[in-house]
Amino acid sequence: MVNLFIAYDRQITQFLNWIIPHNRWLDGFFSFFSLSGSSFFIWILVISIVLIYEELVHPGIQKRDVRFVVYFLVSFLVTFIIANYLLKNIFARSRPDHRLPASTVKNVCPDDYSFPSSHATTAFSASTILAFFDKKRGRFYYAVAGLISLSRIYLFCHYFSDVFFGAILGYLISRLIIKIRMV
């Protein structure tokens, strides 16, 4: 049963790489969303823009601003630690760039394990917190998380299931942190 799942997962990953053309423009586009291994910088950029906008609309630091920063940082750190240091070492799954045909991208994936994708986990964690505090732009935040996640498949750094389960994990952990109401 496990072998069947792995075979389907490889086929889905290869199919996604087949339907998305590989060219210089898309290589650059997806490399930007992957940022050579750290999607954290994309979220810093997004959060900076949101905070600047909020400061222009509502000058001064509000309690809501402090709550947002605390929730974001806690959620991001918890999901990163669980995905990168706990689950990757438990599942110890090799990355697709070691097993699948090479992509056109000259990308160096990290040498650690593949499952779950910490990019997808932290991206969906970040988008869930952002969407909770800024419901108007929620779809935009989830779209950014989706592009970060898809970039990992495109660059052959992750299988589809790595990204899919990472996204679910990031979403669920952030929802739990929101439910706890830390601040």
How would you portray this structure in words?
This protein has 183 residues and is mainly alpha-helical. The chain has a single domain (2-180), classed as Vanadium-containing Chloroperoxidase, domain 1 (Up-down Bundle). The protein has seven helices and no strands. The protein has helices at 2-19, 24-34, 40-57, 63-91, 118-133, 138-154, 160-180. The longest helix has 29 residues, at 63-91. The radius of gyration is 17 Å and the shape is globular. The N and C termini lie far apart (45 Å). The relative contact order is 0.18. The mean pLDDT is 81.
Give the SSE map:
Layout: H1 2-19, H2 24-34, H3 40-57, H4 63-91, H5 118-133, H6 138-154, H7 160-180
Helix pairs in contact: 2-6, 4-5, 4-7, 5-6, 5-7, 6-7
Name some characteristics of this structure.
183 residues, mainly alpha, globular
Summarize the helix and strand pattern as letters.
HHHHHHH
- Which regions contain 5 or more consecutive residues with pLDDT less than 50? none
Indicate the radius of gyration in whole angstroms: 17 Å
Question: Which structural class should the secondary elements be placed in?
Answer: mainly alpha
The number of distinct structural domains comes to 1
Gross CATH architecture: Up-down Bundle
Counting DSSP E segments of at least 2 residues, the number of strands comes to 0
Estimate the global geometry from the Cα principal axes: globular
- Chain oligomer state: single chain
- Assigned CATH class: Mainly Alpha
The total of helices stands at 7
User: What is the terminal-to-terminal distance?
Assistant: 45 Å
